[in-house]
């Protein structure tokens, strides 16, 4: 008896298409700006640069000093708006050097505020902004949210719960008004630089290193999601 023919909608194992190839990992370039009171060579900046470099597998984490920091003299910073041109120049150089790599802007405190200003420039294509300790409150206590409300780039905030420069309730109100995708990761008990007091660590059972690593993992997840959505 001759063998039965296969139905037209059935496929033999040999004709099954191979699984799709995995897309190559997209290594970002990160431009990381320092805060108002310490240069890019500070222990804090070097520490966070290393953590972010490792977690994101970045092709490079570019750090730099604003002009007022040059010469090793400690001077008061100018208004954030006056730092935009220099910052933008650094970003353009990095984007030109690493063409085809996603561009991430990250900053500490004042550097995060300037990063948000730079991200709104029409001259660059930014994939995401990461703000470490965003200084939402000005010297006079007023909420400085105008820059955030203009953003169109996915933005993440990493904030200490005890950061006097960014009360979480005020940040939450601002985030609800923002039109871009935005996320928040809170470091419980952390101050403006995410430092957690010894007593708080002991009472909560937390560990400074582990808490920071959790923040870095959250940044990685946010950045990966931003890449996925930009390619959708």
UniProtKB/TrEMBL annotation:
<protein>
    <recommendedName>
        <fullName>KANL3/Tex30 alpha/beta hydrolase-like domain-containing protein</fullName>
    </recommendedName>
</protein>
<dbReference type="InterPro" id="IPR029058">
    <property type="entry name" value="AB_hydrolase_fold"/>
</dbReference>
<dbReference type="InterPro" id="IPR026555">
    <property type="entry name" value="NSL3/Tex30"/>
</dbReference>
<dbReference type="InterPro" id="IPR046879">
    <property type="entry name" value="KANL3/Tex30_Abhydrolase"/>
</dbReference>
<feature type="domain" description="KANL3/Tex30 alpha/beta hydrolase-like">
    <location>
        <begin position="28"/>
        <end position="224"/>
    </location>
</feature>
<feature type="region of interest" description="Disordered">
    <location>
        <begin position="1"/>
        <end position="27"/>
    </location>
</feature>
<dbReference type="Pfam" id="PF20408">
    <property type="entry name" value="Abhydrolase_11"/>
</dbReference>
